[in-house]
Amino acid sequence: MTACDDSPSHSEEAEQSESDGEAEEKAEAEGEPDVEDAADAESEAEAAHESSEEGESEEERSEDDEDEEAEAKEQQPGQTAPKRPPALKLKPLPSYKGDKETQIVPADEQSSSSKGEKGREIAAAAELSAIVPVRANSVSHKREWDVFARQVQDRRKFPASLAGHLSKDKLDLFNLWLQNNKSLEEVALHMERHVEVKNAARSGRAGKKARDILKDYPKAKAERLMNLLRSKGMWCYDEDFPEDEEEVYYYVGEARRFWREDSTGEKMSLKATIQQPDRTLLEAVTSSAGPLAAGALPSLCTATAEGEKNALESTFGATAKPKPAKRARKEAPAEEIAPATLKEQVEGTMNDVLNQSTESRKLSLSLRGVQYGGQLVEELLTFSKNTEKLYGAMQTACRCGDTDHTMQKLLRESKQKAEWFEKAQAQGPTTRASANAACHFFFQHVKWF
User: Taking CA atoms, which of 145, 233, 336, 397 is between 20 and 30 Å from 352?
Assistant: First the structure.
């Protein structure tokens, strides 16, 4: 029975293969068909292949059913047939239909096309970088970053005005450094950060009309104020109503205002110093049309120039008034100092005598190498020895409490020696100068043979 069933399937396969062969022979005989004819032929071949696969799967199922019936008949009665595991149903693999868009490209054309794609990618990246600029950093500019880091750490080269910006955004400062020729001085000129804390007070005068003043003050006080302002010239006519006495502005004082301002900002500054500037250049810079022109004070439009002056002076004043000076105390009469005793006078003179002895010895040593100074040197040495003896006598007199006659004698001697030492001190530089002049004359006018 199975043999009879197998014969039709083989015959169908043979017929299918014959039909496929005939189709191929016809295609070869006709040559290369058009693209549409080739697509139609491919679709017909696929449909025929699918129908043949479905027929084969149905035949396999019928054969499996017949085998199961034969096994059931061969079993003895009373025995249960063992369960057969279900057959695995495998789906046929889909045939590759081909992609009409994909084409086989030669190697040369493929390399050129890949190069074109890379070029387009590079161009797109360049356009993106032009729109969104890439900031330089320590990775992209390693060598420049190292130089910048060394300059930042050098206190002699790094400006103090950029310290705050360095601590907040070092990368931004690095990009500014690259843009300004790698010079921190140019960066400091380009940007200066300043922090300012300011206490301010404001005082001034505002123009008010008579009806507004009468609202703030009683009538008598308001009239007295307006008369005072009129006498000082601190008033003016309204521009819309000239020569109208009812529409007159009186400059009345405003309340003082006080506030505190904390500001942080960035500014660009440029400083220049000119040594002995040209008058023409100075006038061009500081003239009314120059960049450094001084601002003019606004006009107050008062009735008279004196009124404008009075209005401006009324706004000036110290913010804190100084304390009034205390009354001078009556000085007590000076006490009369009793004259010192002879012993006290000697004790006060002893230090002067000792200093004279020391100074005379120094002066004698300095004049030893000077010509014509031999006599003065000997006199100074003698004076030094005598003053030392006088100093010793004064010490003994003060310690032992000698008589007044001895004290007076020591005071007279010390006074005489002080007068002589003053003359010797004046004579020493003169001797030195005359000796130098003589030496100079000798070397200038004497010929050496």
Answer: 336
- Report the predicted TM-score, pTM, of the whole model to 2 decimal places: 0.27
221 has pLDDT over 70: yes
Q: What is the mean pLDDT of residues 195-221?
A: 82
**Nearest-angstrom CA–CA distance, 127 and 123:** 6
How many structural domains are present in the chain? 2
Q: Indicate whether 60 belongs to any domain.
A: no
CA–CA distance from 226 to each of 198, 211, 240 (Å)?
A: 36, 11, 21
Give Cβ neighbours of residue 26 (< 8 Å, ≥ 6 apart): none
Instruction: Write out the two tokens for 208.
Output: 């008010």
Q: Which residues contact 258 (CB under 8 A, 6 or more apart)?
A: 199, 200, 201, 202
Domain of residue 396, residue span: 343-445
* Residue tagged 């004082």 (tokens): 253
DSSP string, 162-174: GHHHHHH-HHHHH
Kindly report the backbone phi and psi dihedral angles of residue 94, in degrees, each rounded to the nearest multiple of 5, phi listed first.
-70, 140
Q: Is residue 266 part of a domain?
A: no
Positive or negative: CA dihedral 279, 280, 281, 283: positive
